[in-house]
Specification:
This is Nucleotidyltransferase domain-containing protein. The protein has helices at residues 2-16, 27-31, 50-53, 78-86, 90-95, 108-116, 122-137, 148-167, 175-179, 184-197, 210-228, 238-251, and strands at 19-26, 40-47, 62-64, 71-77, 101-104, 145-147, 205-207. It is of the alpha+beta class.
Length: 253
Amino acid sequence: MKTTIINRLAEIEKANDIKILFACESGSRGWEFPSPDSDFDVRFIYVRPLNYYLSVSDKDDHLGFPINDELDIYGWDIKKVLKLIRKSNTTPFEWLQSPIVYGEQTHFRDELWTLCQSYFYRKTNVNHYLGIAHGALETVTNGDEIKIKKLFYVLRPLLSAKWCLERNTIAPMTIGPLLTLMPAQLQTLVKDLITLKSASAEGFIIKIDPELGKYIDEEFNNCTGGAKDLPKESFDAEMLDTFFRNMLNRYDN
């Protein structure tokens, strides 16, 4: 599949007159807890020739394609990505940490990742992750039954929120480092669930272990309360503008 993805990205690059700066796996494969039927969620960042941006008209800043053969491909213009980074959006933070990379221009990821550190805002990140966890928790039925996919849509965001709140840094994308925040016995339990998920359909329904359920409830309340007390922050665009201009100059054809 990797060869298929790389070839598809090359086709997209040529057909749309873009330069793909970075392409990676997002979703459960990137988070390192896939199911056998998990899609390949390919995400990429691209730049267009300089003249594309020199227009009084609003321009498209994303590229999407129909899902085909379990392949979900989506890309964002570098300008859109930088705007989101200024808002401390978690999505670029995660893409840049993906353990599965399909392509990268030299040094691009390291340069942009370094820039991201100056735009981390705890409150935005914590609330984003809590929102995802809350949405997944609403799918619980009969008090303790949930699809195994949805359980991980509770656990990873909740642990990410806890990481941002307690460590005041961008949360890791992959599940492994996040598990270190949990008590040892729960780490073992979740690792066993990852093994189960690797052999089960995403719709497989399980019962939430009572101890894990209690932990989820307590940490959700702790993070929600902690986020309320965080101060407001804002960021200027100077470093982002500089980065944007550098990318245009470097890759303009």
